[in-house]
User: What shape does this take?
Amino acid sequence: MVNRIVTGAHYGLRDWLAQRVTAVVMALFTLSVGVYLLLQPAFGYDSWTELFSGNVMRSLSLLFLLSLFYHAWVGVRDIVMDYVKPHGVRLSIHVLVILALVLYTIWSVQILWGL
Amino acid sequence: MNKKKRPKHLALHQIQLPLPAFVSILHRISGAVLFLALPLLLLLFDQSLRSIETYTNLAENLAHPLLKIGVLGLIWAFLHHFCAGLRHLAIDLHLLPTLAAARSTSKLVLGLSLALTAAFGVKIW
Assistant: This one.
């Protein structure tokens, strides 16, 4: 009998790989932005908003945040699978985390495009 | 079938978490902290971009010493998670095949993230 449960990890390579791909995307983005900010002679509201004024930077920032949210989902799910055993509780936490991350995604678009 | 009952002698005061395991559990804890802080971080990002008023307001609020400590804690969580994550990627690429390499890079991750946190601390104080 195949013992698969709905709140499991889906037993594949996909999430393992996704965790690493999203990590590399985030590392490259944070290093680039970090170095850029360090090279700024003066930092203030103007240079900060200037940085996020173009569509390219807004899109890259959204890509970073989407990577972050997917990465967070895999990480939180692993933690929950390790420490929360009852399936009902586990499923409830999973659903809440997914809903929160989807809301964060909508919020991120609103922040970046100033809606 | 009779399962043999074996005595357990777990001397908990003698068992020590090896350094790589310590880095690993901190990777998990810092990740959980960062996830829980996400709504706050998005709010800060939102306020910093929305208008010059919200930006100045935010800067004034973050000048409070207690909040500075909180921000510094999050900076440490990020830096540790970042460095430990890079170490993880190096392990995946078989770049750290020996126990000695695993131990020395664990020390490096702990030290580097603490040193960078201290540097940020100096900068925001």
